Amino acid sequence: MNYETVIGLEVHCQLKTKTKIFCSCSNEFGKTPNENTCPICLGMPGVLPVLNKKAVDYAVRAGLATHCKIEPMNRFARKNYFYPDLPKGYQVSQFEHPLATGGYVNILIDGEKKKINLTRIHMEEDAGKLVHGENMGNPSASYVDYNRTGVPLIEIVSEPDLRSSKEARAYMMELKTILEYAGVSDCNMEQGSLRCDANVSLRPVGREELGTRAEIKNINSFKFVQKAVDYEVERQTSLLEQGDKVVQETRLYDSDRGVTFSMRSKEEAHDYRYFPEPDLVPVVFDEARVEEIAKSLPELPESKRERFSSEYGVPAYDAQVLTASRPLADFYEETVKLHNNPKAVSNWMMGDLLRELKNDDQEIQDCKLTPRLLADMLNLIEAGTINGKIAKTVFKEMYDDGAEPAVIVKEKGLGQIADEASIEKLVDQILIDNPQQTTDYRNGKEKLMGYFVGQVMKASKGQANPALANKLLKQKLGGGS
């Protein structure tokens, strides 16, 4: 029997407020364990939470950026469960009245757009973090760091519209880009700012009814999302083909072994005994406030991609790469303003610049290269001062040291040789040094022209004008078929 994969993702995104959602403790990552805590986020008796207005604004921005309807009234609830990293014995979340409903995210799969619908976005507080003994020098013990407790979260719940691990990965990547553009989170997956739970099930092709799902918890990388889903599909397929049933449960992904394993039986909503949070009043929005937040949103990635293709004439693939982050897109547009050749700018950014950034594990806003420096170098190429090969050397110097391209060219003597007499002298010597190739070319092997041009470039240390070298070689060689 052929099975169809059905996937829904629950994405948890930490909001980048300065303080936690219900208290004034710092939201800074990486502090000494249990340093960013107070009686409120530790759930001490008699304390009262106060909602962080900035967290609400960020949540609304995320909802609007994903085309959601912002509900005029939403309220918090207590989600009851008992883990060591949850000091109150419950998590303040939202259930019956979430912040936002509906919405969608468009993804590109093999050049085709696919719409992934959202169910809801709700606000909640993050739990603490368990640190197990092998990381603390005591393998038999576990420790609890409550710094993360109370960090503001939004949970973005998709409809089960994803049909493959490739789509799940593309959805996570697009959602991360949207949230970064909206300015609500740093989306640092290594630090846990963005993570997801993947609900995976199989059903016979053509059947509408969903199969029994397994939930894979706390996946924190695009690669692991894809690998975890692939393994789970393989596991469930094997069970069904053997005539066994898939058990509804919560599983974890072991990235070292590349497998999922059972964590616990899956809870349903009633297991959490949700009830309205008595210490917090409902959150009520008027249309003017929502409209004010909507107007503050920047141009979002999908619109920017479409504009790049129409305004700058770059291919859809280029537009996709160049808009992967706001700083990258801004760098591109600033460079194009200074050097009006959008495709040339795109080629250098997508090739040399992104490669260097990846090698250095660096963000574009942190590197020494600026849009003006890149534009100045491209202007030197256009003016014939340097050629493309020499530009590679100039680019690396600019990237490493932030040096001016004209200064690099002058100090290193990298200017392009455009003097016809100088290049003619090189050509004459090349022909003398390569008599057999010269004879072969004149007897019809015209593909040797590339060899001769290469020899001229080598002799000139890459500084000869290639077009002029080509012209003089043809004049001197003649022959051909």
How do the strands and helices of this protein lay out in sequence?
Layout: E1 3-14, H1 53-65, E2 69-70, E3 73-74, E4 77-80, E5 90-93, E6 100-101, E7 104-109, E8 112-125, E9 129-132, E10 142-145, E11 152-158, H2 165-182, E12 194-204, E13 214-219, H3 222-241, E14 249-254, E15 259-265, E16 275-276, E17 283-284, H4 287-295, H5 301-312, H6 316-322, H7 326-338, H8 342-360, H9 371-382, H10 388-401, H11 405-411, H12 420-433, H13 435-442, H14 449-459, H15 466-477
Parallel strand pairs: 13-14
Antiparallel strand pairs: 1-11, 1-12, 2-6, 3-17, 4-5, 4-16, 6-8, 7-8, 8-11, 9-10, 12-13, 14-15
Specify the number of helices: 15
The helicity comes to: 25-40%
Terminal CA distance: 62 Å
What fraction of the residues are assigned to beta strands by DSSP? 15-25%
Give the strand tally: 17
Shape: elongated
Provide a descriptive summary of the structure in words.
This protein has 481 residues and is an alpha+beta fold. The protein has 3 domains: 3-292, no CATH class; 299-411, no CATH class; 420-477, Arc Repressor Mutant, subunit A (Orthogonal Bundle). 39% of the residues lie in helices and 20% in strands. It contains 15 helices and 17 strands. It has helices spanning 53-65, 165-182, 222-241, 287-295, 301-312, 316-322, 326-338, 342-360, 371-382, 388-401, 405-411, 420-433, 435-442, 449-459, 466-477; strands spanning 3-14, 69-70, 73-74, 77-80, 90-93, 100-101, 104-109, 112-125, 129-132, 142-145, 152-158, 194-204, 214-219, 249-254, 259-265, 275-276, 283-284. The strands form 4 sheets. Strands 1, 2, 6, 7, 8, 11, 12, 13, 14 and 15 form a 10-stranded mixed β-sheet that branches. Helix 12 (420-433) packs across helix 15 (466-477). The chain starts with a strand and ends with a helix.
